[in-house]
Amino acid sequence: MADNNRLVLAYSGGLDTSVAISYLKERTGKDVVAVSLDVGQGGESLETIKQRALACGAVEAYVVDARDEFANEYCMKALKANAMYEGVYPLVSAISRPLISKHLVRAAHQFGADTISHGCTGKGNDQVRFEVSIASIDPTLKAISPIRDLALTRDVEIAFAKEHKLPITQTEKSPYSIDQNVWGRAIETGFLEDPWNGPTKDCYSYTDDPAFPPVEDEVVIEFKQGVPVKIDGRDVTPLQAIEEMNRRAGAQGIGRIDLIEDRLVGIKSRELYEAPGAVALITAHQELENCCLEREQHRIKRDIDKRWGELVYDAQWFSPATQSLNAFIEDTQKYVSGEIRMVLHGGRAVVTGRRSDTSLYDYNLATYDSGDSFDSKSSNGFIDIYGLPSRVAAARDVKFGNGIEVPDNTVE
């Protein structure tokens, strides 16, 4: 049963959420349960974060190593959908929010809280993603944001931390707002808010400069039903596949993205992303689908992939529409198995080979050499039938004087 005297806080271990523990207690009168997830963002250990939360006044600290869960159940769905919002962004933050929300709700149930708090501002996408996801799982829970709803600005945070002698080491604030996990890294604000300003070296962490790459790196990725299972012949889990491709593609500067993005809340925002592993894996997966999906199925899936990315970006991970698209996408993957060979070099992941027992590519049909099994004589009848509607329409146009004009190339 929910307790009106408890709330759950999505806790990162940084200044904002550390101050929020005591601040929320003072402003709402509720005891705070801190919830922290490891989704491959790196940094401090979960145990360190847990102890800091308790030292800052949390009554409970719920910590989870969710890296495999994130890779298996969220990143792999994005990979199967070739998810690239606006054609380029692999949904780095958008796919982590539903997972974090699920654990926030689980903690609320476990510790009897009736409210969930997050650290989002009123201008970003993530406030919507958290609160819509939470409501989709348990609509009885309330959600608040100390930054958005309780005016918790940075100067207020620092003064509050000093006044209450909170055990927080205050470091110089980064000029950027950064969110990262194993699928990629998002960088925004500060110097980047002027879209004329080019990214500087300090923006990047997951990728090296593609202008000065090491020797090219050839990799063979094996997929089974849309999921990477081997790299260069070695068995890998989804998490291991992402981590290895982050390292290898990142060393080549692959996956740097700079765009003006249409946010869910209606504004345009300048965003930088680094997603070396995601970009390399999606490139390989798309090429394997080129081999293994039937033409009309493939055409439909390209449209579905785009719509899936938009829905997930727009906080609809748990929606009936997304669940229905998931069923279609999963069905398309039953024959997406095989190997893709790629060369990683200088910011590009280039496919150089494909091999699959379930491929629809038939050498005997495709070849122009002897042994060709394609009956070219069949093309005569095919063209006649296929072009019939156009010929009938053209004859009508000519009859009524609306035929297509042909340029007169006669030289005078």
Automatic annotation (TrEMBL):
Keywords: Amino-acid biosynthesis, Arginine biosynthesis, ATP-binding, Cytoplasm, Ligase, Nucleotide-binding. Its main location: cytoplasm. It comes from Bifidobacterium parmae. InterPro entries: Arginosuc_syn_C (IPR048268), Arginosuc_syn_N (IPR048267), Arginosuc_synth (IPR001518), Arginosuc_synth_CS (IPR018223), Arginosuc_synth_type_1_subfam (IPR023434), AS_cat/multimer_dom_body (IPR024074), Rossmann-like_a/b/a_fold (IPR014729). One of its GO terms (molecular function) is argininosuccinate synthase activity. This is Argininosuccinate synthase. L-aspartate binds at T121, N125, D126. PROSITE patterns: ARGININOSUCCIN_SYN_1, ARGININOSUCCIN_SYN_2. Pathway: Amino-acid biosynthesis; L-arginine biosynthesis; L-arginine from L-ornithine and carbamoyl phosphate: step 2/3. Residues 176-392 form the Arginosuccinate synthase C-terminal domain. ATP binds at A10, Y11, S12, G13, G14, L15, D16, T17, S18, G119.
